[in-house]
Design goal:
Low-confidence stretches: 1-7
CATH architecture of one domain: 4-Layer Sandwich
Number of strands: 10
Largest sheet: 4 strands, mixed
Helix content: 10-25%
Number of helices: 5
Shape: globular
Mean pLDDT: 84
CATH superfamily of one domain: Endonuclease/exonuclease/phosphatase
Length: 232
């Protein structure tokens, strides 16, 4: 049994990287054995990696961690795998974290159990990778990943809080991710049914451009009452 402090979650660290391939087989190189990379992830409890470019024969390991993989099938005539996700979870935390089956290979959900972590609510963490809009994979794929993720959010929000992380190739500029001057004053529902959006400071982003997927992500945030973290 693991004894957890009341403020355990305050010390839980989660990191995300788009690694652009874990292996370079022609160079006999693996990022999981690179001292510089290992130094960056050394103190993380949960490590989320996208664009692993791994296939079924690739084995990803890290001492002290359990690994969950999602391998994207190769496109016809493609020489190697693209996309791909991995979540590495410290072994001592594994009893409190459950992987949830998803409807596509481009995202992974995990649940942080409220009893194990001594929280008031479960936390559902979704790691997402979506190829750029003009990529070959996006043009050929019929999956609308953000719509699928939104369906899951609607379901999981009834039971806990939501965190999304990853690379969605969604350029949102400085668009607002909440309803300005929101009020439930004239709605025919009780205040405990409708939750008003709380005004926040404007987001700061080095990228001022917006694309179609960025607009979709903003719509998802507004409808689900999620907030994009500031980017300085």
């Amino acid at each position: 049994m693991i004894n957890l402090e009341n403020n355990f979650l305050n010390g839980l660290s989660i990191g995300y990287w788009n690694v652009n391939g874990l292996f370079r087989k022609n160079e006999n190189y693996c990022k999981m054995s690179d001292p510089l990379f290992l130094k960056q992830i050394d103190k993380l409890d949960i490590i989320a990696l996208s664009e692993t470019h791994c296939g079924d024969d690739d084995i990803v390991t890290l001492d002290g961690y359990n690994v969950e993989m999602s391998i994207r099938p190769k496109l016809s005539k493609a020489r190697k795998h693209s996309g791909g996700l991995a979540i590495l979870i410290k072994a001592n935390l594994q009893p409190g974290i459950k992987k949830i089956k998803s409807n596509a290979g481009n995202y992974i959900w995990i649940q942080l159990n409220k009893s194990f972590f001594n929280m008031q609510k479960n936390i559902y963490v979704c790691m997402v990778y979506i190829s750029p809009e003009n990529s070959t994979y996006s043009r050929r794929s019929k999956e609308d990943i953000l719509s699928l993720v939104k369906q899951d959010i609607c379901k999981f929000q009834k039971d806990g809080d939501i965190m999304l992380l990853g690379d969605m190739n969604a350029r949102t500029g400085t668009l607002g991710d909440f309803i300005s001057d929101d009020s439930g004053q004239y709605l025919p529902v009780a205040n405990d049914i409708y939750t008003q959006d709380i005004p926040l400071k404007p987001r700061v982003s080095q990228d001022i451009h917006v694309n179609d997927r960025g607009n979709q992500l903003i719509d998802l945030c507004i409808s689900s009452q999620l907030r994009i973290m500031n980017i300085w």
